[in-house]
Structures are given as C-alpha cells and as structure tokens.
Amino acid sequence: MYGAAGPPARSASAPVVRSLRRPPPQATGVSFMNNQKQQKPTLSGQRFKTRKRDEKERFDPTQFQDCIIQGLTETGTDLEAVAKFLDASGAKLDYRRYAETLFDILVAGGMLAPGGTLADAMMRTPVCVFAAQDALETMHAFAQVFNKLIRRYKYLEKGFEDEVKKLLLFLKGFSESERNKLAMLTGVLLANGTLNASILNSLYNENLVKEGVSAAFAVKLFKSWINEKDINAVAASLRKVSMDNRLMELFPANKQSVEHFTKYFTEAGLKELSEYVRNQQTIGARKELQKELQEQMSRGDPFKDIILYVKEEMKRNNIPEPVVIGIVWSSVMSTVEWNKKEELVAEQAIKHLKQYSPLLAAFTTQGQSELTLLLKIQEYCYDNIHFMKAFQKIVVLFYKAEVLSEEPILKWYKDAHVAKGKSVFLEQMKKFVKWLKNAEEESESEAEEGD
C-alpha cells in the first residue's frame, strides 16, 4: 500500500492514538478447543458449593417444644426434678435459639400465639406456672426453677426479661387465675433480683390501663413484692429505672390523681404503697414549686404575684407552711452570686434579704414556720463558711422586719437549735437574746401595772 518505502515516518510531536479495537488473535500453537475453555466474564456471579456442616439448621420450635414437654411429662410435678431436667437439657438443646419457646412452655404450658392463647391445639403440660396451684408458696418454688436455669445459662437472662414483658402485654388473653399466678411470680422474681423493674413498662399499655387490667395486676404484684422486701427496697428498685413517679399511670388519665391512687391501693391492702406515692407526689410538687419560684424571682415578678402563686400551690398540693418557708429561703438565697470575702458578704446578705423580707414574712405566720426558718439560716451559715459571722445580723434583720418574733428566737436559743456551728452562733446571739428577755420582762411588768 505504501510501496517499497514503507509507511511514512510519524512526527515526534504527533499524539499517539491507541485503537480501542482488539487486535485480531495471533496465530499460536493453541487449538480452538483450548480457547473455548477460557472462562468469560459473567454478571450472574459464581455459585459456591456449601459444605453440609455450614448449612444453617432450620428454625423448628415445634420439635424443640416436643422435646421439652416430653421431658417435663417424665419428670412430673416435682420441681426439683424439673430443675435438674432443664439443667441437663441445656447441653443437648439449643436454649439460646429457642428461649422464647422454652419460657412459654414453663409459664403457659406451650407455645403462645399473639394475644396469649396456646399456638397449637394441644393439651397444656401440667408442669407450668398457669397449671400450678394458686398459692405464693408454689410461685416461690417456680421462681427457684427460673433462678437455677438462668444462673446455669446466663445468656437466658435477657430472653427471660423479654418473655415477661411479652406476657404482661398478653394479660387480657389470660384468665384471672393465670394473671394472679403470674403477678405473684413476677413479684417474687423482682424481689430476688432475677427481674429488673423496667419490665413494668408493659403495664402502661393503653388497652391494659383502660380496661383496669394493669391496676388489678399491680395489686397482686406489689403485694407479693412487698411481702418479700419492704417498701423502701421496692422504692429503690423503682427509682433505679425512673419509675418511682410513674405509678399513677396505671390508671386512665381521668383517674390519675393521688386521691384515686391512694383510695384504690389502700382498699386493696397496700397502704404503704399509697403513702409512698403520696410522698413522691409531694416531693415532686415541692421541686416544681422551687423551680417556678426561682424563675419568678429571676424575672423580677411582683411579690404579691409570687405570694399568690405559692399559696395556691400550697393548697393544691397540701404543702404545709413550715415546708414552704424552707423552699422560699432556699430560692431567695440562690438568686444571687455571693461575694467570696467574709467581710463583704455580710453586708451583701443584709441588703439582699432586706429586699426579700416581705416575701419571707408572708410564710412565717406560724411559730413552727419561724423556727424552721431559724434552723435553715443556721444550717446555711454553717455550710457556707463566709456566712459564719453573718448569722446574728440576719436574725436581727428578720426580727426588725417582723419575719421572726421573740418566742421562736428564744426557743431556738434555749433548746431548738441544731449542732451545726452551735457554739459560734449561740455566742453571737447572747447579747441579742439578753436584750429580748429584758424587753419581754419590761413588757410583762408594764402589762401588770396597766392591770
């Protein structure tokens, strides 16, 4: 084509253009049959042959159920024998995979369908909680079975908690007798620490609450729990899971009051639980009062508005005045940043407290309230060392502003003080108390002369 001279020489600066076409196959010694054996790329991927030992076993809870029920039938109702059978079977059966089935059988006698009915049309095994005698002693024995099983197979702990949460959601599907047994068992398991109080969240299900199932179940549960432990231990467990302030949610919204809760549980024989909830409600109301009070003070709301609000809260939450004066004092003292120098803080305190005297005076209409305020001042001055020398000045200020009167001050000085800084504060008050006593004697003598 180019002749004898061959193709024209390429310029050094000309770009090299590579052909995108594949070059024709070169003649090699390889036969066509060998070329056919070369694997071509494919989009379908490759299939690998799975070894038999790697194949996942099919999930078959029915077969597992049959094994457990057969074993329970052979052991009979002897719960010691049941515990031994369950202990030994864990080495042969897959408890980790079939935990829900296992616990369904031990509680209800067979696998449960959604709603709480038995999944199969089969006879319930007699070796289960629901078929047992409705007695606390029997539930104690079953609790031991669960304890031993979970101690032996620690990985079942989470599965058991999930099972109990599920059972509580199924309460409507169980008979009253079955609910009672489950409530007693749950109370015992909460008391011995096998279960965490967080499982009680299931009782706040809207349908259970609406139909009164949650409250009725809670009565049996708390009776069983408090029977094992005291109310303080129960309260501590509830506090750990932030459930100590939620018990009133066992009732519908229109019945969530301290009065209704107290009446319901007191009549059911749980007076200590009723008193606990009432106290919790009062504590919550006090915290809310202090928070709102501090906000009102920081905004600079008029004292008359603050006093009106506080008195309404006192009435609504049944908070006594001696408690309120303590809240008001704490709120007043927390609204300012105090000087760190002892010689300056007393002057700052007098100026600040003089401003708030009308507010404090509104809640010292009782002798006990005045005495409470004196104790609060004593404790505050002791706990905040820069105020140690300011105690007497604060008391005199409040006396002049008619926040405090003679009798409570004299009583505090004589025998109503606390140990904190006692010697320092009594020494500070010595001259003022002497003056008060003389003034009181003069008033009495003048009154006698007038008669």
UniProtKB/TrEMBL annotation:
Domain W2 residues, every copy: 279-446
Biased composition (Low complexity): 1-18
Keywords, comma-separated and alphabetical: Activator, Transcription, Transcription regulation, Translation regulation
CDD domains the UniProt entry points to: W2_eIF5C_like
An annotated GO BP: regulation of translational initiation
Coiled-coil residues: none
Matches recorded under SUPFAM superfamilies: ARM repeat
Family: Belongs to the BZW family.
Protein name in the entry: Basic leucine zipper and W2 domains 1
Organism whose genome encodes this protein: Sciurus vulgaris
Gene: BZW1
